[in-house]
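Q: I have two molecules that I believe assemble together. Could you output structure tokens for the complex as a whole instead of separate predictions?
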Amino acid sequence: MWGAELFLLGTLTAAIPVLIHLLARRKSLPVYWPALRFLLESHRKTARRRKIEQVLLMLLRAGILFLLAIGLARPIIRYASGALAGGTVVIVIDNTMSMGAEEEARSSLGEGLTYAQKALDGVPDSAFVGVVPVVKDPTLGLTGLGKGVETARACLRVVKPVPGRASLAAAMNEALRLVKSMGAAHQEVLVVTDLQRNAFPVQGEITEKAPAAVLTVVNTGRHSPVNATVEDISAFMPVAAPGGDLSVTGIIVNTSSTTVKTIAALEVDGARRSTQEVTVNAGGRTEASFSTRLETAGLHLLTIAIAKDALEGDNVRHAAVFVPQVLRTLVATAQDDPGGQSPAFFIRCALNPSSVAGDSAGSIVVDECNMLELGVRDLDQYAAVLVNSDLDALDDHAGRNLERYLDCKGTVVFFAAGEPMKIPQPDSLAFSQSLLADPLIRRLPGIDMGPFRSVRIYATSEIPVAPGDEVVLKTAQQARPVLVRKAAKGGGEYVFALSADPEWSNLVLRGVFPLLLQQMVYSSERAGGAVACRAVAGENVHVPVAAESSYDLVAPSGRIERMHTVGGNLDTGALLETGVYKILPAGGDELAAYVTVNPPGPEGDLNAIRPDTVAERIRGAAGSIFTVTGESELNNALTLSRKGLPVYDYILALVVAMAVFETFFASRITPADDRKRTGKHVPPSDDLKAKSAAPLRPE
Amino acid sequence: MAHRYLDPKTIGRLRRVSVVARGVVEGFISGLHKSPYLGFSTEFAEHREYAPGDNLRYLDWKVVGRTDRNYIKVFEEETNVRCYILLDVSGSMGYKGSRSDGLTKLEYSCYLAGALAYLMIRQRDPVGLVAFTHKVEHYMAPRSSAQHLGLILDQLEEVRTGGGTGVGATFHELAERMKKRSLVVVLSDLIDDVETVHSAVHHFRHRKHEVVLFHVLDPDELDLPFGGLVDFIDMESGDRIQVDPAAVRGAYRETIDRFTKNLRRSADEAGAVYVPAVTETPYDMLLARYLMARSRS
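A: Yes, here they are, computed for all two components at once.
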């Protein structure tokens, strides 16, 4: 295994001394010499030794260059691969948003994943390998420990920063439990994290102990990148109605150590409404307040975003507001109530049982008018119109008005017809009790009241049941129908047998009637709006929906998942995307609920804790603990943990030793003072010149 | 007339130094060398009875008066030394290195020869000069006259290098030619087999000659100081060899060192005096040192 393969090209330099040895032709100096016989003798005597010395010197120099290149390529010899073969390696990958922090176009997570992949290089297929993400991410498709590295590699390739509540301690505990469970000879846990001070486990959080394991914490953190985060968003709408003014406030937190200047923007349904410049001191926080107006009813997504910085994932925070149509209920009477209490009083009491005074509360307003006044009312504002009158007795004018009201925006038209019928108190109590005791009554909250358009309450306990009518409720004792669903235009008509006489108001207000009335009114609310929920990314949400049915969960990205309710609740599963999830009836387009999902919170200060602090915090979790930064240290730690030998240190030491020896050896062969030419030759006489021109004699 | 090889400064430096033969040589001119032959000299040795024919000048009258017998005073005679300067003029003597003050080995030898000749003749010792290669190129019989010194110096100026060295045959021939005991001063690089040199020196010694070998070498010959690749050309034969001096320097030094040591040992064994004469040493200094050492011994 090589740490820096590129340096292997340097081994070619080993040829340089050989080439010099082979190709170099030195220029010789002619010297006329008196005693050649001694030179010849010395030359012959030393020729073999000199040849060997020269070759040795050449090989030594070539070897130095070769080994230097090899050493710089950082070779690592693994001589204990046998233990690793049956071993267990678990990689804990910190996929929190902070790992997405970028510096010079490189993210901590990207760097960490590279390290993780490199760490798998030396792992044989016979080893058991697992990946434990800090933030659960179903898209990774993890199934615990698997044999071979390919699954883990595939998993690492798709890891991305995921918003959600994260616990590095929990992930490390899980990893330690996994390696321990296999009981292999080689147990290794590699934790790739940015060592956030606030997120790294404190002492005691690591409850699992794996004494035989080697725990290597790889620090990929960036030091103090400029980063701000939108910590929170809140919206206030004094008049929750279309056209109402909205105040939105975002909390901007500076998580870095330098002052941050940024632009905060308010977006409504994806459209930018306004911006403002924000300056936050190091480690401080400030508010960015916006004011806008929501013109239309329905669900609106509010977003406060700041400019992109080192960590992009925490620059946006969402809120959703639902602007309802005001649920106003109009009680129209044809005549004064003989009991001194208007029907509106009872209606108010029924809709708001806790209200002693009978005042309207929340978004339900109960108005009252004469039938003849209906024509001057803006009935678009009413969700329900209750008519306390005998339709048959209405004159043409009132009847035409009523016909128009049937098409009003409201969803309930309530009739009270006939004369009030006096029912003796005991009877009424008995009746009430019988209704409550009836098992069928218990079904009432679960009744899908959505489609009905009208309910009649008759002043008699007798409801004529015609062919085609559906008896929804009957009394238990006498089997008298009290709630009948009649086929009618717009989805049907419920006929409820009950008196509205104020004298029996106790029966009305304490019995089934208020439940029914609330159900009708609130189902009207749902029909025009949705249940609002808020969640943090990664959480499961149980959304209360009305019916046992199927729903479509539409993610912010547009991904649709079909779900089924259980016990009146819809379990969304982990919501990983930030933004607004919509819950629609299967195949329908009417919003049943919505869930606003935000990141879990500020990602800390992005400053890594000190390595010695890391070791201190997780002391005892494993037999050996390494805290490394960078590829080189990781390689060393892996080598040590896998009982490998980082031979490059030894090679470089050998190179130094060889260089020293070369200096000594070369100086021994050619002493330094001999390298300068000190001898001079005698100017040869003509006679000598003639002799020296003679052909060379073989030695 | 000024001679190239007799520098007045050198003469001044050597004025107090005289060549004293280590051994007893025979001579007929009174000099500084002790002779085994007793004669009539100034230094009294003993009395002997008068014999007919004795010079009455040396009769000791005091003894005659006291003993009434005739006794002759006998003086120890100081004999002259006959000196032969054997100068090697072979091609190899033409080498001149960068450290030899611009002198070839031959020129250096000539200076030595000139100085020696001057010293010898100044003390009235006869000096001869023999220039040789592989044969005797020039022969001047020993004379002790001042005129002879001039002739020697003239001859020294005329010698040229050329031809190969052949110490053996030449020295044997000279040994045979020298009849009387002599001081044989050899000025040569002695590039020959050590055994040959030994044999030749031994021959001189056999003939009772005193031999002094001045082994004249250029410093370059001792340490082979060249760098780079050198094409060495033999100055006598013209042979060539291309050598990286740095590569063979060690072995060369060993070889030349062994050669000089063998020469010295050979000279010692033969009873000759071996004097290394490296041309970077000023010749007068070399000569003075040698003569001082010689006179002390």
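A: One point stands out. The longest strand of chain A covers residues 244-254.
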